[in-house]
Amino acid sequence: MHEEVSRGTPDLSYCLADPMRIRRASFPKLQSLRPEVSGFKKAEPGGPGRAGSHGGGGEREGPDEAPTPARPGTRKCWGERSGVETESRMVVTSLKLQDLIQEIRGAKTQAQERELIQKECAHIRASFRDGDPLQRHRQLAKLLYVHMLGYPAHFGQMECLKLIASPRFTDKRVGYLGAMLLLDERHDAHLLITNSIKNDLSQGIQPVQGLALCTLSTMGSAEMCRDLTTEVEKLLLQPSPYLRKKAILTAVHMIRKVPELSNVFLPHCAQLLHERHHGVLLGTITLITELCERSPAALRHFRKVVPQLVQILRTLVTTGYSIEHSISGVSDPFLQVQILRLLRILGRNHEESSETMNDLLAQVATNTDTGRNASNAVLFETVLTIMDIRSAAGLRVLAVNILGRFLLNSDKNTRYVALMSLLRLVQSDHSAVQRHRPTVVECLRETDVSLSRRALELSLALVNSSNIQAMTQELQAFLESCPPDLRADCASGILLAAERFAPTKRWHIDTILHVLTTAGSHVRDDAVANLTQLIGGAQELHSYSVRRLYSALAEDISQQPLVQVAAWCIGEYGDLLLEWSSEETEPLQVEEEEVLALLEKVLQSHMSLPATRGYALTALMKLSTRFHGDNNHIRQVVSIYGSCLDVELQQRAVEYNTLFRKYDHMRAAILEKMPLVERGGPQADEEGKESKAAAQLSEAAPVPTEPQASKLLDLLDLLDGPSGNAQHPPPLDPSPAGTLAHLLDLPCAPPSPEIIQRPSLTTWSSGCLQKKKVESKESTEGPVSLTKHTAKLVDLL
């Protein structure tokens, strides 16, 4: 059986596990290294049995050659390195990169993927330990793919250093790529490649120098930048554009890491601006931008090259720069955007530079079409440049009109950029932005939440005294259908705008009531206090307000801010509900029982907050003096909440019950209408500032000082309570000599002898709580020392 298997077509199932075993037949070098084995012959190139072909049967047995008998139980296949036949019980080698990618993509579960990667990482570690230089870059390439998937690959850092130090380009390519991915400033190992990068930069081979520059610009630390500045500076003047553009970008990275290196690269920028190569010129503009942003001296230096930059941009706009860099008919938009960004920095707060670039900006704004994304990018940078420099008024209006055209674009990103830019300009160019108010209002209806939010912010910024009513109607319509995330911002914005620009108090009250009815709990915390204060200050609108609020409360008691305002207003002006008002087109007929039942319904509702129940309970209590009917029902409702679990509500109910039982004769006076509270305004703020300044002046006035002994006797008086019998000594000599003598406790002319009667001091014994009185007399012959008084005070305590 075994002989028949061995003499027939060999079993290639084990060989197909690694396609590299068969594909080597197509490489002449590997064919010459592989010894001939009896029973097999070389596959003819392009024949049906070509190497690596799964459908052609692989290598076939020669018809005239007798196959060598195989050992029983052994399958023949080519070895991985030596080419000799191995047995199936040998360890399976690791996968190639392409096969690894295919296996990982074919994993059906996350656990299967992790198992496959763990096995392959074990093979990679084993290969690193073996130290095979020919396989190191292949294993590191697989490890980098594993790192890109998010799995740990830190054990390959030292292998990157070995590959970078290798003289082979294939090793350096993978090594530098691994260094960019696996190393950064947080690892000390990145400093070990400084010498390798320095040697490669000085080597003179352009591909190797390019790899070293890319690595340095990606992960170079401040120490590496300082050590390699000379080499990068030399490469800036190389004739090859390939190296110059990479050296320029590396210089940008060095300046960001070490700003003091700006003086090294500053002299070369003027020469690099004359380059015609796209990459070199674009990199030079980027380098100058970075220098101007970080150094005021460089900013002053490069303002001299504004005419040259204007000429380069004018050439791009009119004649074009290079056909291969044109996108959708726009000549080199990346270079245009970078030049406009640099012009914006150079023209900021500089009149002469702004005048130089005004004509060019107008030309770019008028000649660039808005139909393509590339042209929109150029126009947007143009608008930003016009707004940042000292441009003419007509040019700023042109910029706002460009943003207005952006709002009509079908692309959502373009509309978002336009809304953000107009929001920045609304303070400086309010009238120009107002022309696009209808388009901005249309953006409120966008389904994209981010666009709706920016349109809401811009709409609120456009509100003024002339359009307050029209804009409020639009915003109220948006409030009814806006997403929950925007409802709080919209309600807050309407309330602030109405408070600032309300034409009449009645319109203001109606607006706030509409917001409270629509937004509900999304309004600000101070909305209730502001509305109650507004209603209290409008005496002529008390009847109108209480009727509107009663009708709104009867329709819906779920909106807590509205219920709180309505309960307060009914409690204050509930008697006006029973009167007929000529302001209402439809008279409201209300009975006392209906009002009390509605407030009791609010108290019993499970939707009412504890604060809302407090408003309703207080309103019921106040109605006991506003209504002329029997108060027994009100007393019963109030007494129920005397045992409420809420402490605040329970306290109110207990106090109100006490008011009914013991102080009923004072109830009408206590429950009078609340007085009007003065609202804070600019005038009140000024008065507060004046009073504060007066207080500071009074504090700064000199205050006569008392003698130290008198202060000490006052301290002794505090221990025994107020005493009016304490006699104070006469003031000491205020002269400098007398003060110095008392300070040093030196003998001096004593004042007239006088007995100081110290007040009786009562102390308590901590052990037996026994009172005892201490009476002391002291003669004032000679100076009284502060130390002596302090010691006696300690003894008394």
Automatic annotation (TrEMBL):
Keyword Cytoplasm part of the UniProt annotation: no
Database matches in InterPro entries: Adaptor_Complx_Large_Subunit, AP1_complex_gsu, ARM-like, ARM-type_fold, Clathrin/coatomer_adapt-like_N
UniProt topology in membrane: Peripheral membrane protein
Top-rank lineage group of the source organism: Eukaryota
Region listing for Disordered, in residue ranges: 26-78, 680-706, 718-739
Compartments, record wording: Endomembrane system; Golgi apparatus
Domain Clathrin/coatomer adaptor adaptin-like N-terminal: 113-663
Broad class of the protein's primary localization: membrane
Record key words, sorted: Cytoplasmic vesicle, Golgi apparatus, Membrane, Protein transport, Transport
Composition bias type Gly residues, residue spans: 46-56
Family designation: Belongs to the adaptor complexes large subunit family.
The name this protein goes by in its record: AP-1 complex subunit gamma
The species this protein was found in: Galeopterus variegatus (Malayan flying lemur)
Lineage: Eukaryota, Metazoa, Chordata, Craniata, Vertebrata
